[in-house]
Amino acid sequence: YLLLGSAGFKIFDQTVDSRLGTAVSGAGDANNDGVDDVLVGRPNFSSGVVLVIFGHGANPAYNIDFSSSTISAQYGFVISGLVSATSTDSFGAAMSRGGDINGDGIDDFLVGAPLRSSYSLAGNGALYGFYGSATISSRNLESNPPGVDEMFTIVGGEWVEGIGNAVDWCDFNGDGTPDLLFGASSAGSDAGAAYVVLGTPVPP
Question: Which CATH superfamily is domain 2-197 in?
Fold first, then answer.
């Protein structure tokens, strides 16, 4: 639910066990229209799906049935995770706004996929960063992946590390560039770990 003062609206799903709303977050102004947007995770549907809902300055209240995994382009867009050999990568299990990572003046956002397997490592996990744009639109990471100027990926270096179970950002060293924070709760035989990646003028 989004509550706007005394009013609001509901985003819902009628698909059994898709877990819509496992994670929710503000996205910042990802489409650069002057209004903040919202991220809603659906990590248990296929390899995971993230719904990005555009903010609206006037009459923003509308209920959204996301059972079809689509949304009208005037309301937002959808990002679908990579096809996985396992049941799900849990893409969208954690999300956060990311600040302006690439320095173009537009807000970016972060999505975790803690069950992602890559580079012959099972469950090493992944963190995806998506760069905001006035033309940002729906993407399928498998069949229609964003280019390097639209997205970056950080993957775990250990078996079952599970990076991306928690994600956030801050300016840790005060240099004006966003720094990335992400958890890896299964690292070191479930001892767990957290990472701080300092931002640079050249993004990851």
Answer: Integrin alpha, N-terminal (2.130.10.130)
